[in-house]
Amino acid sequence: MDNQGCVFLVGAGPGDPELLTLKALELIKTADTVVYDRLVSAEILELIPDNVDRIDVGKRPGSHPVPQKSINRILVKLARSGQKVVRLKGGDPMIFGRGGEEVEILLQHSVEVRTVPGITSAQGCASSLNLPLTQRGIANSLMYLTGHTRDDIAPDINWAPVVAGTTTAVIYMGVATISEITSEMIAAGLDEDTPALAVCNATRPAEQHLLSSVARIADEIKLAEFEGPVLFVIGKAAGLAAYNGELQDGRLDEPAAAASL
């Protein structure tokens, strides 16, 4: 088709608009239509020019007003009409963003598709706290996991590397299943006092933190009543967040003065 358009799967990052890549920003400003998810921050949506059409296809826990099949149809239809389409996703489109599913569908319909990476939430929350997810002598590997499944049950994971204390586990979309996940970790042999960090709205003005242990994090996150996407970091490296200040009311205060060298 001579007037065939193109779909760009673009990562919007964790929320701070300054963490957008230059390529992502350029595509947002020159698109015909932006099809965006719930986790794209309001500050980033404000960067979309007034002459660019917007389609909100955001999903919320227990509420999917625009099912994935409908999103697929929208993308194919827009591209076939000759449009330059930006499919804007929170974080990175290929890390728990269903980017692979959408690439597959678009290619099946002979639609050109390109991917633009974004900073994933794990990197965003780590940078906000100057928190290394890997550190010599503490954690030499990193595991990204989804806590959300189609049946809202904890995923079946081999916890041996985390139990061994050499791996940092980062859990996306895990609020509903964090109790089952941490119970599985402990049953697999993880020390109950292993640090567990919850970060809500990473890199955004409303960012909040909760530093706890793997045995207590599930109960404490319920009491915290965070509003927004929550990421969990579990492992020895998560305890390094304590170096950035004392935890008060779910937040980390300003760091204390560094000790003399």
Q: What topology, given as strand order, has the largest sheet? A: 3-2-4-1-5
State the CATH architecture of the largest domain: 2-Layer Sandwich
* Overall number of structural domains: 2
Say how many strands there are.
12
What is the beta-strand fraction? 15-25%
Low-confidence stretches: 246-261
How many angstroms separate the termini? 67 Å
Number of helices: 8
Which class of secondary structure composition applies to the elements? alpha/beta
The third-level CATH topology of the largest domain is Methyltransferase, Cobalt-precorrin-4 Transmethylase, Domain 2
CATH top level class name of the largest domain = Alpha Beta
CATH superfamily of the largest domain: Tetrapyrrole methylase, C-terminal domain
As a percent range, the share of helical residues equals 25-40%
Largest sheet: 5 strands, parallel
Mean pLDDT: 89
SSE succession: EHEHEHEHEHEHEHEEHEEE
Shape: elongated
C-alpha-based Rg, rounded:
20 Å
Characteristic terms for this protein:
261 residues; 22% strand; Methyltransferase, Cobalt-precorrin-4 Transmethylase, Domain 2; five-stranded mixed beta sheet; disordered C terminus; five-stranded parallel beta sheet; elongated; Cobalt-precorrin-4 Transmethylase, domain 1; 2 domains; alpha/beta; 8 helices
